[in-house]
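Continuing the series of single-chain predictions for the mutant panel. This is the parent chain; the variants come on the following pages.
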Amino acid sequence: MFNPETVVDYEFGFKLDLFDRRLRLNTAIFQTNYDDIQRTVPAIVNGVLSNSIVNAATARIRGLETELTVQPTDGLQLGVSATFLDPKFKDFTIPLSLTVFQDVTDTPYSFAPKQSYSLYADYTVPVGSGELNLRADYSWRSKQYTTGPLVGPGYQEKFKDTAKIPAYGLLNGQIAYQLEDPNVEVALYAQNITKKKYFQRLLAIENSLGVTGYSPGMPRTYGVRLTYKFGGE
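Parent structure:
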């Protein structure tokens, strides 16, 4: 049996709208405290060492999020956002036997890149009986870790990076034409324009079975999309 996870959040931020709302800035700093984090780890159950879901750890995540939107001219909008995280296990101990316990607080926190940012430009202009929209966006994240081997001082340290997903960035774009009557949009889109090779997920079990399974991200894709909206907006 295990207890529910508990989370306590602390946040301070501000929102600014300036220059007749042509510039908007939102920023927040926060700390999240996690208690009774559930993990499948070695555990002593009824006096026997086995793998089980238990409340194994406590952790805290500190971070900053900021978002800036600018509209320099009618129809043109530019935006940038960024997130900075500092995740850390505060207490994470597992049994290696009925009498020996191991500190594994050096285990990387899963799916929490320390830095990430995104940029976009969006431009809309009337053309004929509709509107032409041009959009490009780019997003980047630093290295992150999936759920992998537990790591502590002198314990499985060589397996730490087997759960690492390297940093990557993706560039996308779209050209769309929106008609008012009928309410139809035709769009030509492209994703991962630069053909970046990256991993979305992986399964790191080199410490037990000697292998790591990788799930590659989507390659460059492009296509045409037709959208019809029923009943107006």
